[in-house]
Amino acid sequence: MSALRAWYAKSHRPQLSLGTSLLSKSNFRLASTLPPRSTQFTKPTIDHVNHLRSILSSPASLLTTLDGSSTSGELDAFNSDWMGKYHGSSPLVLKPRSTSEVSEIMRYCNSRNLALVPQGGNTGLVGGSNPVYDEVILSLSNLNSVRSFDKVSGILVADAGVVLESADNYLAERGFIFPLDLGAKGSCQIGGNVAANAGGLRLLRYGSLRGSVLGLEVVLPDGTIWNGLSKLRKDNTGLDLKQLFIGSEGTLGIITAISILCPRRPLATNVAVFSLPSYEAVQAVYAEARSRLGEILSAFEFFDSGSYGFVKQHQAHNGGSKKVFETEGEFYCLIETGGSNAEHDEGKMTALLEHLMGNEMVLDGVLAQDETQIKELWSLREGITESIGKLGKVYKYDLSVPVEKMYGLVEIMRERLRERGLYKEDGSGIVIGVIGYGHMGDGNLHLNVVSKEWSDDVQQAIEPYVYELVAENSGSISAEHGLGIMKAPYISYSKSTESVEMMKRIKQMFDPKGLLNPYKYIV
Amino acid sequence: MSALRAWYAKSHRPQLSLGTSLLSKSNFRLASTLPPRSTQFTKPTIDHVNHLRSILSSPASLLTTLDGSSTSGELDAFNSDWMGKYHGSSPLVLKPRSTSEVSEIMRYCNSRNLALVPQGGNTGLVGGSNPVYDEVILSLSNLNSVRSFDKVSGILVADAGVVLESADNYLAERGFIFPLDLGAKGSCQIGGNVAANAGGLRLLRYGSLRGSVLGLEVVLPDGTIWNGLSKLRKDNTGLDLKQLFIGSEGTLGIITAISILCPRRPLATNVAVFSLPSYEAVQAVYAEARSRLGEILSAFEFFDSGSYGFVKQHQAHNGGSKKVFETEGEFYCLIETGGSNAEHDEGKMTALLEHLMGNEMVLDGVLAQDETQIKELWSLREGITESIGKLGKVYKYDLSVPVEKMYGLVEIMRERLRERGLYKEDGSGIVIGVIGYGHMGDGNLHLNVVSKEWSDDVQQAIEPYVYELVAENSGSISAEHGLGIMKAPYISYSKSTESVEMMKRIKQMFDPKGLLNPYKYIV
């Protein structure tokens, strides 16, 4: 079981093993769209280092290659993202130990026109948290204390650098749960989560961070400490300024602490998986599950037969796959409940299952009987990413579209690749699968094109067509990963000119010199 | 039962019967803090009327006294708030029938420097939705259609002028619930609710509108229609601009439509009331209820013995009160559940009751057996406002403070009034009660000082001391009612100079001429 859990955690990072050919392609495209280094920014020098060292209470809080005290190798982990896809060349990393140190750093950098990139756990997928050129890296890792927790209200106040898993463990000991969960939970930091407005696995149940986060402490580009660290669930005195910083990806200010409302931890978990004849059937089951499971529904994931086929193929390759369904289908869904009473929750889940089977809304269904089976059933959904990564090169798109239109995008893309002779059902084309899976409840589709090899023909058949499709369906080209440097050039596919203009004006208002996390987000 | 329900609806508006002495006092104080009419704004003329009439598709969409086609009496309901506390003197009301009409109105008013106040159901409590002087009134009442509802995702898209109760009824027929409920639901409009970021009775369960609202359509002060009417639950492509308009009280733009995520409607409701020995016991029971009822807890209200005493006194006056508790206490709490399975929910509620009684966490408890009893128990909490209104003159404060400090404010205020000889337990002072009740789960305290008559001594003993107390406890002087014109001068008790300065800069960015809902909010 612990091996399964460890594999599960790793399965969120399979891109690491996808080889360098995708990465170099991405870099190639990026190079052509990357803005040049701004001449407005000062290059960090030894004089800056000396002054910044005087600000910091600990000598260990500064790493630099400028005076030879650190090697560039020691700065690599800060300069590159964890996928090894994006690389900066900063000579200077600062790891302040207090909000006031962050403030003094910001004030100084602002006065010297030193550009700066804030960095949490550096687990992002869009190159948002590492430098592009020589921006000073400001790591929040040393701001890592829980400041307070109130077990009556469930309100946690904690430094930005607290690791998500640590926060969740802290809460678990007290019977509470952090309203966000991610594959990267062991490394990502809660301040970075808020700065990125991370979505994750608990959104269906606990909603977005915009509803959970009660307050923020933010250091503004000029060094001002903005104390918006409210512990109030209700406060209607003026604009809710913290919302500007949530999801701003570190471009408006540095989040140094958060206040967040945490729910009670569920005491019981149930998982069932169903096979279904059509996407319409998935939608009908989703509606039924929402109705019958109501308040205990905690996840509703779907995947298509193509996805399941790859999982079975991968399992077979690894020594055999268990037969799960008597009758397989075109689609599958996984339903999870989390509630406060095991008997009640099982009753609801069993009743749902009987209703779905009795009314022939599903082809077959399996209800997990214990923790091991829960993990086995989850592995059917969570195993997709690893399976396709092992069996081919994967063009991955993380899209948000209205639920009813979600799978249509997969079908359109499959047909397009078929028409171009790239995809053939018998496996003789370069593309061996065009599959879809994702978070049904959130309208979050993972469209994946599995190819025998990296190919310009395939890529050009997909992009920018996939973004156009998303735009036509009023969707989002980034459901939960943000813009960073990867998607910054493509924001117009999801946002109007008026919206982008408003965003630019707000950026200009907060950061007139544009020093904070430059070249990214809204450019 | 229907009589009870009607009374319940009325009980949210008891201030109407509080007499004119409070109102004239408020006006008196307001007069001294009210900014003068801005000379930057053009006075509406018959030429403006003629042009605006040409914009509107229906002659009935324009009411004006300028050409004698309407009397000032016909404009009274638009010029005054429903409490009769705030009065403007606009000669012109516009009731556009489409977003494009709103846009043309805004463009024209902007070009002519005509100030303008947006008005929904005009049910606010802070004078935010009626004119102060001669601002043009833009009523959203004729924008009242549901645009779409998706029963898979639960996403409702509707015009701003849809009445909250109509929206909820529409959803109820489809098995869904609007994630907001208010006493004023029969009149207030969903656009106004979002503009005010209304809190209400369902916040504990469904969270704030900031998490539920998915998108907005807004007409900006220059007439631009900003289409932010997303139906996406997840979208991380840039700043979440809609958050600026939520709670901006119509000062940044006119909300013309909303997109909102609606949960499934609970199928079962249970209500219990407990008597308790102390506020600490209330907090302990709240923690226990959160733990044991978890996902089905839909309300946790508390009130003190003073509140309950007034309710009993009022009931006795009206022909006898039922004995509810064998053992009364210093405090009471009402717990409501809403879930998808009646049997399960009753089981949880009964188990909680047995645990609380068995462990002597409460003095006594009553579980409603049917719908009539549910309403009777709710009337103990909901009857407070009417009871004290009948038995004295009430100084009312709607405050938000951390839950653990909530009741301390009542005790401090009671002691202060006792020290000044204004409050005496034996009823011989001018103040006959200093009581507290409210939404425990939201940290929302209703502090009420019940006086035999209106008195400068009493008012001066309370204000601005009560705001200072709130400020010392990092609270909010307006938990859910907003600022409007009533609390605009007091924002500094809840927000820092830096915050107010940021808000002013954002207002300047969106509305450089300051034409939209002037004299209010952030002044």
Structural class determined from secondary elements of chain A = alpha+beta
> Could you name the ranges of chain A where pLDDT drops below 50 across 5 or more consecutive residues?
1-32
Q: Work out the helix count of chain A.
A: 18
Radius of gyration of chain A, taken over Cα atoms and rounded to an integer in Å: 24 Å
Helix content of chain A: 25-40%
Number of strand segments of chain A: 16
Measured by DSSP, the beta-strand proportion of chain A falls in 15-25%
Might you state the CATH topology name of the largest domain in chain A? Alpha-Beta Plaits
What is the topology, as strand order, of the major beta sheet of chain A?
13-10-12-11-15-16-14
CATH class of the largest domain in chain A: Alpha Beta
Shape of chain A: globular
CATH-scheme architecture of the largest domain in chain A: 2-Layer Sandwich
What distance lies between the first and last C-alpha atoms of chain A, to the nearest angstrom?
Answer: 46 Å
User: Which pair of chains forms the biggest interface, and how many residues does each contribute?
Assistant: A-B, 91 and 91 residues
Number of domains of chain A: 4
Largest sheet of chain A: 7 strands, antiparallel
Give average pLDDT of chain A, whole number: 89
Quaternary structure of the protein: homodimer
Keywords (chains A, B): FAD, Flavoprotein, Oxidoreductase
GO molecular function (chains A, B): D-lactate dehydrogenase (cytochrome) activity; FAD binding
Protein name (chains A, B): D-lactate dehydrogenase
Family (chains A, B): Belongs to the FAD-binding oxidoreductase/transferase type 4 family.
